Amino acid sequence: MQLRYGFRMYPNGPQRAALTRAFGCARVVFNDALRAREHARAAGLPFVTLSELSKRLTAAKKTPDRAWLAEVSSVILQQSLRDFETAYRNFFDGLEGKRPRTGAPRFKSRKNTRQAIRFTANAKWKITPGQKLRLPKVGDVRVRWSRALPSTPSTVTVIKDSAGRYFASFVVETDPAEALPPVTPEVGLDLGLGHFAVLSDGTKIASPRFLRRAEKQLKKAQRVLARKTTGSANRSKAQLRVARAHARVADARREFHHQLSTKLIRENQAIAVENLAVKGLARTRLAKSVHDAGWSQFVTMLEYKATRYGRTFVRIGRYEPTSQACSSCGVKDGPKPLDVRVWTCTPCGAVLDRDGNAAVNIAKAAGLAVTACQAQVRPGFVPAQRVEAGTHPKPRRATVRQAGIVPR
């Protein structure tokens, strides 16, 4: 399987200027390609293919208006055209129902908070013996290698985020034989806001609430930004401070998700979660707390780590009544308000915690063995009561002769 490894880069002044130039050239090539197709569509001309766009790019380098495109690696410009073609293909596939719908490609701005360029093997980039990343027409950039690459990467993407940080992202092929030794436990997870996750074995994981804890500092930085004059250098500095504050929150949340997902994958053979409607929840009054939890990112980490290390990952439907059924006897007593956190099951008398009960039901719905309550994975067959009406064919209407009525 393919994985992406990211490392922090520390370019010096000239290297930052060269990367800024490369970001700008890639953006111009993307916008020129989009403009060419838009003009062709408006004029009723044939669709401009990728090969035609590549020929136009080669010709544009020889003109005075676009001669500065030759100052950067040609691989960057060709990859920008391929990204443009991928954006159009995704848009058309979304219209045909082959993938989730996406908007049509839009023009890129130099004010975008994220800039990226990609080098393939044709660009002849390499890692030097001094553990620096040599990029064509940029130089040897210092990289902080936090871990070793499992194989030779095929591409490297240089990214500049909104906080002004530079990253080198490598795509590598990993050996599928990285499976962890098998273990016995199987667990179901109920994700929430009060607790980030409740496991079917009764373990409750507190919600860190990184955004809520940093709100005071974020508000202060935002107020300072609001007082700066538009277009001034001080406003740019204030924007950078706000972006760095948000980046610290995002990094802390990502680190928490990585540590927790790795721990769960190592300790459990199978993991089941509920397919939550995050987009719908993000439009409610709990939107800030939902975004702060980052459920989608956490579940994505669980899924790819389970695939990589030979574990079982199961998603159950969002309409499964995990909060309505008793995990001991299986009786469904209907939905309950959110303020009801503990209740007693009337038929069996079990005292149930809302989140813990839901986690056990998630494990059951996924077909996992639940050892915490020793309940059946699937409820057994129960004979129908004789008092139940059931479903019977509708009786036919009696004819005149059968009713005993003699016509006159």
Cα separation of the termini: 87 Å
Q: Roughly what fraction of the amino acids lie in strands?
A: 15-25%
Order of strands, main sheet, comes to: 2-6-7-1-5-4-3
The succession of helices and strands, N to C, reads: EHHHEEEEEEEEEHHHEHHHEEEH
Shape: elongated
* Number of alpha- plus pi-helical segments: 10
Reported for the largest beta sheet, the result is:
7 strands, antiparallel
What structural class results from the helix and strand content? alpha+beta
* Rg, Å, rounded: 30 Å
Helical content stands at: 25-40%
Secondary structure: number of strands: 14
Average pLDDT, all residues: 85
Low-confidence stretches: 371-408
Write a concise keyword list for the protein shown above.
408 residues; alpha+beta; 7-stranded antiparallel beta sheet; 10 helices; 17% strand
Structural features, described:
There is one protein chain. The chain has helices at 13-43, 50-60, 74-95, 210-213, 215-226, 233-267, 278-281, 287-293, 295-309, 354-365, and strands at residues 2-10, 115-119, 126-127, 132-135, 139-144, 155-160, 166-173, 186-191, 195-199, 204-206, 270-274, 312-316, 342-344, 351-353. The model is unreliable at 371-408 (pLDDT under 50). Helix 1 crosses helix 3. With 408 residues, the protein is α+β, with helices and mostly antiparallel strands. Strand 8 and strand 9 (195-199) form a beta hairpin. It has a 7-stranded antiparallel β-sheet with strand order 2-6-7-1-5-4-3. Strands 10-9-8-11-12 form a 5-stranded mixed β-sheet, sandwiched between helices. A two-stranded antiparallel ribbon has the order 13-14. The N and C termini lie far apart (87 Å). 38% of the residues lie in helices and 17% in strands.
